[in-house]
Specification:
heterodimer, A: mainly alpha, B: about 300 residues, mainly alpha, 11 helices, about 70% helix, globular
Amino acid sequence: MQRYILRRLLFLPPLLLGVSALTFALIHLAPGDPLSTQFGLNPRGMEPQTVERLRAQLGLNEPLPVQYLRYLGSLLRGDMGRSLATRTPVSQEIWARFPATLELAIATQALVLLVAIPLGVLSAVKRGSLVDALCSGGALLGVSMPSFWFGIMLMLLFAQNLGWLPSAGRGDGTLAGALKALILPAVTLGAGLMGLVARVTRSQLLEVLSQDHVRTAHAKGLAPRWVLVRHGVRNALIPVVTILGMQAASLLGGAVIVETVFAWPGIGRLAVNAIWRRDYPVIMGTVLVFSAMFVLMNLGVDILYTLIDPRIRYD
Amino acid sequence: MIENQRRPYPPSSLWLDVWRQVRRNRLAVLGLVILGALVLTAVAAPLLAPCDPHEMNLSAALQPPGSPGEPGTPGRILGSDELGRDNLSRLIYGSRISLQVGLIVVSIAGLVGVTLGTVSGYYGGAIDDGIMRLVDVVLAFPFLVLAIAVVAVVGPSLTNMMIVLGGVSWASYARLVRGVVLGLREEDYVLAARVLGASDWRIIRRHILPNCLGVVIVQATFGVANGILAASGLSFLGLGAQPPEAEWGAMLSAAKPYLRQRPLMSIAPGVAIMATVLAINLVGDALRDALDPRLRS
């Protein structure tokens, strides 16, 4: 177990190396002079000697592999360059918006776990009932809806027509205000994932409930509720964890869109604004952070796996 | 004797079987009907649309649904947008872009992914290692985030978006196909073909690829749905279709400032996207059930 985690951790650096190589390549694919795309300088208005001196100073004349190593070195020190628009360090910009994105992600996950799993269990237990039909239908709609549209529709209903919830921002500073502001973005971001998780929970539980050990548990007189919880749900949740890990990517991608719809001041919105301003260092910084988060989330899921499923032994 | 016995099943082929299974699934039939209607709409857009989707008329901007057109022009069943263009016509023409985007994205991803996956699984060794590490790195990026970054660098346009979406989604095809090929490579009929002197290319073409077709088709069906969703999201962010293109995601982002005044302008393109994606997902579900031998009845 510890050896497995250690092995997975050893796999992390090469993966992050690949990720950084890709962002580095992207920065260099950006059209325009690297002096302007990377440092926000305007070489056209300068003397040729000044341009040459700056290039030499900033290391732009060196071969690409050397530049990549330097880029990697600064990444390791947490230096991702400066924003072309605000001149603040990219790491600082990202760090300032990290809590908002984290908050949204946690709220979404909580929503998925607290709503989708019980719904999946309910529709498996009451198979063929109206509840089941409604859940299946809702799940199918959930994965087929564009999240930004669903968000706009929620905004139309709950913010504009009913006036119950704010349509943008992170609230008025009070706890109640913050929670109210969180509801619409979290529901929007979680809709697709909730549909998927409810569907998988249902089909897995149905499969588990038809197995022999469940019949044995019933036969020995265990209360039906405990059979469901201990023998059914516990076993059915293993694939659900995989789904949650696999969908981490769409959650992060969705965050970019949902944060834009609700003017949520997170990393996704930072990325979109940076794209509109052609602020390449910020774009690459956000991509790097998102990818690192994704890799770490997957690692977390793999480790969680070994904890909930004793059959899995990695060695 | 044997010839007098009634055969339990009429003669069949794999695809006839699949068709029978899909036909029995009511939801899949519904999906096929919606999809058929969409394809028809896309093909016959010039005949169905009451107006030119790009024709602007600033004096008739943001008209409510059902308003009569100016004398000599058709009425605005869904109203007009902020530049006075007919919303219904734009919606109809939007089906062309969405279906086209979905198909092109999947074609790029499928072509690259199946090729690399087959080579990887069939030849193994260092080639396999190299390709699979590349797959790991591509899959280490959150799909949409990577697409956004690349589009931001190469410049937003419909064509660039399709290439990028295809270019970042091939990896899952490669991993899937590699897994199947790995198993097929060890089959006796492949060995037999090799003993008979068949070339690698012939074995891959005649014995490996046809057997991968099932999983690839299922994956590709969901790929079209996801491609359409992702493309509409990117266009919504302004990274895909550019004005004046009538694309559903871009129409939504243009409609957002008028949400209070003209809610239908925001509702209609979303319903169109959802109906398209839902229809494809329904068909995909049925195809998966029909093509997976473990689920066959």
